[in-house]
Amino acid sequence: MPEAILDNFAYARIARHASVREAVLDYLDGPLDTLRSVLVQRLEICTSVRNMAEFDAEMQALAAMPLLEDTLPAVGVTAQSLQRALVQRGTHSGPKVVNLLIAATALVHDAEILHYDSDYDLLAAAEPRLRTRWIVPRGSVA
């Protein structure tokens, strides 16, 4: 199975929405620990924790998803190229920087992004090689 990154919005909805959890499991056709993560993604997820116990629990859960290296020089070059493509399209102020870095990492590692975030529509429109998939239909979960 090709590698897949679950974006932060989809990750946050796994515990709250059975439809998201089932869609991820159906896509993977296996356990959740076959997903991959990105360091910048882990850092963003942990900005919402309220105390050390939540931080430790979140980091333990995230540790089940192996990291894709996002500090490679190729990721930086790809991120700048992707941002340039967004500027050319006039959509560069849309996607959050963390999503730009996740997309660049996915491109370098040939991973698909399972998401619940329209930022990835803009990123994929700017770079056709980026593989993205709405994990459940847009607007179907809060």
TrEMBL record:
Domain of life: Bacteria
Gene3D superfamilies cross-referenced by the UniProt entry: 5'-nuclease (3.40.50.1010)
SUPFAM superfamilies to which the protein is assigned, alphabetical: PIN domain-like
Name of protein: Uncharacterized protein
Organism name: Blastococcus colisei
Taxonomic lineage of the native organism: Bacteria, Bacillati, Actinomycetota, Actinomycetes, Geodermatophilales
